[in-house]
Structure formats: structure tokens, C-alpha cells
Amino acid sequence: MEIIKTITVHPKDYLTSQELAEIDHEISIMETREAAGIEALKVVQAHRGWISDESLHVIATYLRMSSAELEGVATFYNLIYRQPVGKYVIHLCDSVSCHLTGYQQVLNAIVQHLNIGYGQTTEDNLFTLLSNVCLGGCDKAPVMMIGKQHYEHLTPEKAVEIITALQNQNQNENVEVEL
Amino acid sequence: MSDDNNTPNTVTVYIDDQPYQVSTDDNLLAGVLSQKLNLPYFCWHPSMGSVGACRQCAVTQYQDENDQRGRLVMACTTPVTDGMRISLKDSQSETFREQVISAMMTNHPHDCPVCAEGGECHLQDMTVMTGHSTREYKGDKRTFVNQNLGEFVGHEMNRCITCYRCVRYYKDYAGGTDFGVYGTSNKVCFGRQEEGQLESEFSGNLIEVCPTGVFTNKLFSAHYTRKWDLQSAPSICSFCSVGCNTSVGERYGSVRRVMNRYNYDINGYFLCDKGRFGIGFVNGLTRIRKTKGISPQFPNKLSRLDVSKALVHFKGKHFIGVGSARASFEANYYLQQLVGKKQFSLGYSHNEMVFAEQHQQFLKHHKAPSLAEIEQSDFVLIIDEDITQIAPRIALSVRQALRNASIEQAEKLGVPSWQDSAVRTIGGNTLSPLYLLQSKATKLDDVAEAVILQKTQDTIELLHLFTTLLQNNHELSKLSDDNVSLLNKLLAAKKPLIVGGWSHQSSALFSATIEFIAVLSKAKHTLRACLLPPEANSIGQLALMDENSLSIEQVLYKVMDTEDEIDGLILLENDFAVLNDAQLNCLKETDKTIICLDHSDNQITALADIIFPAAPITESDGHLVNYQGQIQAFYQVHPSVLPVQESWRWLSLIAKAIYPKHALAQEVDSLAELHQLFFQQDANWPLNTAANANDAKAIKAIAREPHRASGRTAKMANISVHEAKVSQSTDNYRFSMEGGDLNHATEMPFTWSPGWNSNQSIHQFQRKVAGQLTHQANAQFIDFTDIKRVIEPRTPLSEHQQCFYPQIPWHRSGLQSSLNPEFALLHQVNKVFMSSTEIAKRQLMENHWVSLELTAACTGEKRQYIAQLLLDEKLTGDLIYGDIDQLPDRIYSEVSVSIASAQQVESYQNRCQQLRQKANQDKALILEKLKVQDAYIPIRLVSGGLDNA
Predict the structure, then answer these.
(1) Average pLDDT, stretch B170-191?
(2) Does residue B399 share a domain with residue B485?
(3) Taking CB atoms and an 8 Å cutoff, what residues of chain A touch B181?
């Protein structure tokens, strides 16, 4: 007697009850079930940090849509991460206004400070650096976004300062936890 | 698609100050192309409409004749209006179009020399058309990781120009779910979510839909020739009854590929994967290339004398002829005439004869709709047929019909049907109603309004109930909600369509369907009905059926009966797949002579005393009759290598040896002569080519090769440095690059037009874009005669007993399918589906391996299979269906299911593994043989007749 291994995981065995409740809420306010795709991805990402292949398949099954279609949605939006990311994701704007006002220097400073390039994550899993086309702050360029916070009028020093502050804050948090 | 070709809705449009009459039914781009003017485009497709994504078809539109500046508009999203003035030649739009290509080319790899699309690439054509001739971009190009998309379709994403046609075709048009578009901005990728076999039955059309070489034909690439070097002929797909028109390409004596051949009424722009990728059977390892039972006087040189010597002692003997729905219409008729109607069998069992006869009488009174007509339907009912598997191209048309509801919605809002994305946005999930009465899950379930899953017996009863209700206007209380809405919507529809067929081998279902249609069509004159037989020439067989026709059972009885004066059997391309083991044993034991004409080894050729190697469809001239009764011609793609020749040529030799006094025992040199001969003997013979022959003479025979074919003098150089004489053809096409204008051909071997090297060139040959071909021949249909006898269903073998419904996927039906190793690789694993109650009742567990024992109703044979047990939530009661490899097509009256042991599962998995290995080996072996053959060209330089003729 052998259980077939190829069968995909049942969504209810994979998603937590809280995730399910949040996704169900989104489904209830949408016209069609698959319309909750973006929100469901956001829900799972909020809980797990990123969307793994397995998460993608399970969400697609749960929303009764094809994983190809959901993958299209997931890869279209740059705030859905299809690879593991650090605790803080730095979205550095590289659009026209930022280019004109010193984006390159800001980028160099961050790269030097964290020792990572675009698409990479620091060894302590704290920071991931991504490029972003326009954050809507052209009048305050250069701009970057970390988490839900926009940082404007950046200079190389200011950017490093912000990142260092986050590093320190995180260290303190860890200390607190350890205490 | 508009069904009216001579539309009165034309207005005057000034294109570069010249007035043109342009139809308002389609967009401006289609209008311009219909005038045979050149305007480049990518994302627009005649059967998929406009989305305005690529910006390639920009033209300048002017306010009036005084407007000097004008403004750029995208022709594909611009409606045609009376008196509108546009320019294609002004520098503004010309520069714009050139710059669009220029931008696309920044990422295109320019790898045409190693690209399979090169020489028939729409992107190449459009680049040349816009005049973009220098490479300016010096930077990096974006690159992708390609996917393995399975056996048939190659993937090279770097070539992509992001026109979105592929995903619009695969998802929107063909309803595939395993294909999508990923990413954003300059990095957009098209493909599957993860590597694997494309699941759609229509995936091959990606190759033709893609304007460049992202999606290519893997089987063609493996044994490749440029389009300009292919020798092609117009052909008909021999895999199912739809009769899609194909263009088959060949080089060095082996068939390379199948492309769609446009036919407005039937396949339009698309084929199914079986038709496109199944042609490999003609290059199969089991092709019969030598005679058996005939000893030639000189080895390797068979003469007519050898044949007559071998057959002479059968002179005057009594043979039964058995035709087949795989052989040409001519060959079947010829055999029937030779052996006599009373000694002729169509190759049908008694059971099949019952509904074959009903079908024949049905076609006498009901004209089956064409695929173009099917696409006009606003309601579809399918009665227990898995059409996606048995006649896939019809399923694709049904999918289009379901869009009519949203097209109508859009029209109410003033949005024309060609505005594809707008119509889809307005329509949302709105579909015209599709009702499925069926005994197993099918691929159309996801677009059906209701899937009524029930046993065939219940469907028969339901149809009877419907019929009674229609006749007596009874209240609908006996019916379930689904059935009530089915009837109501059917009666409310303007153009309803009913599809049924032979798959269940059930005469009761067939007659219930016919009765229902007959009663309904009285109430509903616009009703269209389409009954699907299994094979390419099944309806041609019906035309030969009369009260004398023998069933297989009668044939076997006569063969076994020692008193009967039958001396033997002549089997015409019939592998007798319908026989059960006991019946096959009868044939094994008989001492009567078995003469076989076939193209590949099978269970009957193994028993044959004499075998004549018959030419498969690609090496033959002949006709097939499709599900509508339409007679369609196919032509030799390349001459066959003797002794392989068309069945009708063999029959003429057989006639002269065995039936020397028969009026048809004459030498025939061409199909036209054969038709002439038939017509002289039988005024009812439908293909009188005498009249056509005069026309044909007026038109110069069409070349099978493009005028750019290379190596005419070099390709034989390893044999002789002298330029070889071309093989002579006996039809209206030449084995040459010289011949009449493609423009005059009613059936074009390939399509090409100056500036248009890709298949998009077809609009140069259409009266208007997506309309009838300019030189479309009038479709000819069979006239069915009355049959005196009505065959009674004899055996009590009934639907009552049936308890297992096999799913038979498209790649696993018939001899010709089984000869493609790629098809064998498509089978994943045996699956059996049950309802939750049935699983509980049988004390089984879903998602476990089970051992399945099936008992055939007719013989009691038991067979055992290992399968995965899956739950189908839509199923109720004890209905069981499943997809089981190598399951003979029978009615199974008993199913016993038990949990499989680990050992059984392991041995099953090993067996599957072995089958896959074997298929992969065969694939490699076939390719190796073909490549060896390329080095030595085995085509006889002069064809026709046997060697000493």
C-alpha cells in the first residue's frame, strides 16, 4: 500500500488558520474568487516573508486558478517577492529624477556599506537591495523605500545613516529578546 | 469571423489619395491588408482580433483632403469609416514603424542562421518591410532561461518581441491554463509556470502564431529543412473525421512537418496537435516497404509479371473485401466494385453497422455544420462525446462559439467584435451556454454551464424524456433543475448546436440522439447537429454502405464456414482493431488466403499470406470524406519508392490478375484516369473529373517546391553529377520548382507571396482577411442514397451493463497514433476516478494505488491494470471512469478494485519506465535512420508503374 506522492498539498494543510481567515475575507469582498490573488499573495508574504513555489501552488489551488496565472500576477508586482529576502528590503529608486540628483552615489554608498549588489541579501539576512522604477517622490529625489517608509532627499551619508540606524535598532531588539 | 464574404458593408477609404472599397466589419488594418497592400503588424491576428500592443501598424490619418499634418493612429484599433483618409507612405508613419522595429531589435538576438523560423519569419518580413536595415544598438541584450515545454514545442525566449500573441492564443483563444506571461517592463517572459509538457491539445499552433522563433516545432527542428527547400503538397489530416486541410513538407524522401493549410469553412488558421505532430507515422520503424508472398524474378526488382504470377492461381476465386475508414474513398470503392457488394465489408462490426446506417440516413436529411458555422452557435449541447479528444479541432471551434454571448454584450455597447481586449473585459466570465451530458470528465468542463455526469444509460433515458416532452408539451416536473434550464436555453437559442457521435459504440444512444434532434429540429429550424464518426473517411464508407454490406461478424463467419465458397480475404488498410482475442484467433487458424494492403505492420499483416505495401497519405493521391460528407482531395507530397504505391494502384493489379473480366480491371496511370473509369461504369460516381480535367489543362500544373528551392542540381550529386530528371507526377502538381502560379491553385501546396515569407502570406490569397480563399473550389458533398434494409440491433450487449468508461486521450487512438513514439511519451500514469460514496463502499482510499480488474462484456475476458485512484467530487453513484494505457476499446461490465500491493505498484512503475525508454529509443532510432537516408537519396528518379512498366 503506497500513498501517491505527486498529489499537491491541500491548502488547509499548508496555510495557517489566520492566513486562511485573511484570504477568505479578501475573497468575500471580491467579485470573483481569483480576483483575491494579489491580496492572498500579500497575506502569505506578510506571514512568511516571501512567496515560495509551494505557497504559490497552494494559493492558486485555493483560489481555483492556474498557477501560471497567479505567477503572472506575482512576478508583475515588484513588492511580491518570489525569492527569500532579508528583514528589510531596500527599494532604491533609479528613475530619471533620482538619476539626475545623485542616485549613483547613493547606490555606491549602500553597496559599499552592506557589501551586497542588486538582488542580493546580506549574510545576516537583514537587508536585501532592489532597484525600483519611481517611488513617486521625484520632487524629493533621490528616494528609497524600506518597508513602508519612504526616505527622501538622500545623500550617500544619509542613506548609510538610515541603514546603520536600522542595524543598531535590530541589534538592540535582539539583545532585548536575549535578556 | 464574419460568415458573410460578400459583405455589403463597404465604404470608400482613401489610402494615399487612392479610393478603395473597404469593409466596415473589420478594423482598418484588416481592411488595408484585404486590399493586398503591405502594412506591417505583430500583435493583431485575423482570428484573435486587435489589442494594439505592438504599435507596429501605425498609419497617418487625415481630417480631410486639406489636412496636411494628420495624426498617427494604430490601424488595428481604428474602425473603418466612410470617406476616411489615411496614408501608409508618408514619412511620419513610415519613420514611426521603422523605429518600432528598431526598438524591438535592441533585444532580438539576430540569430536567424541558427533559428528554425529563418526564411519564414514574420519578424524578418516586417523588418524588411519597414526598411530597418542597419543595426544601431550596441548594448547588452536581455536574456532568459528557456523551458523544456515537452515533446513538441521548442522554446527560445531571447528571440521574443513581446507581442503577446502566444498567451492570447493559448489562454484566451484555446482555453489553456498552463501557460502565462511573467515579469514586467523589459523582462517579460512567456511560458509555463514550471517546465513540462504543454497540456493543451492545440499547443502546436503557438509555432504558427508566434511571429518569430520563440516557439518552434521540435520534431521539425530535429530533422530540419528551410521552408524554401521543402517540397510540399496540399493534404488532408488523416487522424479524425474533421478533415482539416494541411500542408505537408518533405525533403530527401522523408516527411518533415505539417503546417496548417487555410480553409475558411473547416480549420481556419489552426490545427490540433495530433494533426500537426502525428505525421511521423509515415517515417515509422514498422513501415512496410516490401511485398510478402510474391517472389520476384530478379531480386530488388518487382515486376507486374511477378505480381500476376503470384496471384494467377486466385483467378476466379471468391474473395471477401474488407475496406477501412483509414483508406481513401477511391480505394474502398474500387475494392467494393471488384469483390462485389455482397462480398464487401466496410470493416464495421454488426453493432457499428446499426448506427452507421442511421448516420447515413441522418446525413441525407441534415447537413452537418462546418466549423465556421459551429463558431456561430449561441448554445451547445454535447451528448456523451469527449470532443477535445476525438475531434479536437471541433472543440476549439466550440470554445469560440461560447464567446458569442460576450461579443453580443460588447456589441450592445457599440464595441466591435475585433476589439479583443475590450470585448473580453466587457464579457468577463460571460459565456454562451454549453451543456455536457457525459460519462466522464472532459477538457470542456471548465467552460460548461452545467456538466451532467451520468451513465450512458441515464443519458439515453433523459434524451427519450426530452423527446417526449417536446412532442407532448408535458410539464417539466420530472426533470432536474439543470435539465430544465438546458431545455429552456436550447429552445430560446437562436443558433443552437448539438454534437453527438460514435464513441460509445451504443446504437441506443445514437438513435436516441437522432430522435431527439429530429423532433427538436421541427420546433427549431435553426438547429444544427453534428454527429462525429471516428475516422478520416468514415463518412466515405457510409456512402458505400448498402443492404448487402457485410459486418465483421459475417465476414468471420464466412471465413470460418468450411461450406462457404470463400477462398480468402482482401484487407484494405484495415488492422481489425475491433476484433476481440477470440475473433483474432479464428483468423489465425483459418487456412484461407489473407491478402493485406497496408503501410505499417499490425496484427493482421502478421497473419497475411500476401502483403502489398500501400502508400500512406503523404505518398498518395486520393480523397477523404469528412464528418459533413465533404469530399476533399489529398496529394502526394513526394513520390513513393517502389514497390510502395497507392492502394488503388495495387487494386488495379489485383483486378487484372484475379478479376480479369471485370470492367474495372484496367491499367490506370493516374487518379484522374481512375475516376474516369469509375464514372464510365457508374454514373453515380461522385467525382467526375472529366469536366475538371479541362480546367486543369488550362492551368499550368503547380510546383510543389518554391521557386527558391536550392540544390536542384546538387542534391543528387552523390549518385550522379548529371542533373536528374524530375519524378513525373500524375496529378496537377509537379515534383519541381517550376510550375504554374500559386495564385491559381484551389489547393495551395504552401503559401508564399512577395514580401510575405511566413504563413501570414495567406491573406494575399484571401478575398478579404479571414475570408474565403480567392480560388476556393466549391465544396463537394456526398449524396446519400436510400438503404432498403434497416439493420436491427442484434446483440443484447447493452449500455445497462457498462460500468467503466475509459477516457481515451487524442494521442492514443488508432494504429497511426501508436506509430509515433512521441505520443507514447505523453502518457503519464493510469488514473481511475470514483465518487466519494463509491470509494467508501468499496473500502478504498483516494490518492492510493489500486489494482483494477476489468471484465469485457462481450467475451468475459478479464484484464488487470494498476492505477491511481482519484476522487471526482462531481461524480455521484457507482459511475467509474479512468485513463488506462493499452486498454482495448470494449464495453466493460464488471470492475473490481482493490488496494494494490507495493510489489504490484513497483512492477507497474518499472513497466512504465520500460515503455518510456522504448519510446525514447525508437525516437532516436527513427531520427538516426532518417539522417542516414538523407545522405543517400532513395527516391526513384522516374516514378510511375512498376520497374519494368
Answers:
(1) 95
(2) yes
(3) 72
Q: Does A83 touch chain B (CB under 8 A)?
A: no
CA nearest B176 in A: which residue?
A66
Q: What is the pLDDT of residues B619-665, one digit of tens each?
A: 999 999 999 999 999 999 999 988 999 999 999 999 999 999 999 99
Same domain, B433 and B534: yes
Q: Is B58 helix (H, G, I), strand (E, B) or coil?
A: strand
Categorize the per-residue pLDDT at B948 as very low, low, confident or very high, splitting at 50, 70 and 90: very low
- Please tell me the total number of residues recorded for chain B in this structure: 949
CATH of residue B123's domain is 3.30.70.20
Judged by a CB distance cut-off of 8 A, whether residue A13 touches chain B is no
Q: pLDDT digit string (tens) for B810-834?
A: 999 889 999 999 999 999 899 999 9
Of B182, B185, B848, the CB nearest to A1: B848
Kindly write down the DSSP assignment for every residue of B594-655, as one continuous string.
EEEEESB--TTTTT-SEEEEB--GGG--EEEE-TT-EEEEE--SSPPPTT-B-HHHHHHHHH
Number of domains forming the structure of chain A: 2
On whether both B120 and B79 belong to a single domain, the answer is no
Residues of B whose CB is below 8 A from A72: 180-182
Query: Is A20 among the domain residues?
Result: yes
Cβ pairs bridging A and B (under 8 Å): 49
A34 reaches B (C-beta below 8 A): no
Opening angle at CA B748, ends B744 and B749, nearest 5: 135
CA distance B299 to B316: 29
Contact between chains at B177 and A78 (C-beta distance less than 8 A):
no
Which residues span the domain enclosing A57? 11-76
| Distance in Å, alpha carbon of A155 to nearest chain B alpha carbon | 28
Q: Which residues of chain B are within 8 Å of residue A71 when distances are taken between CB atoms? A: 180, 182, 193
Are A95 and A169 in a shared domain?
yes
Q: Determine the structural domain holding residue B200 and report its residue range.
A: 111-128+139-222
B106 Cβ neighbours under 8 A, 6+ residues apart? B137, B139, B141
State the complex-level ipTM.
0.91
Among B185, B192, B868, beta carbon nearest to A4: B868
| Global confidence as pTM | 0.94
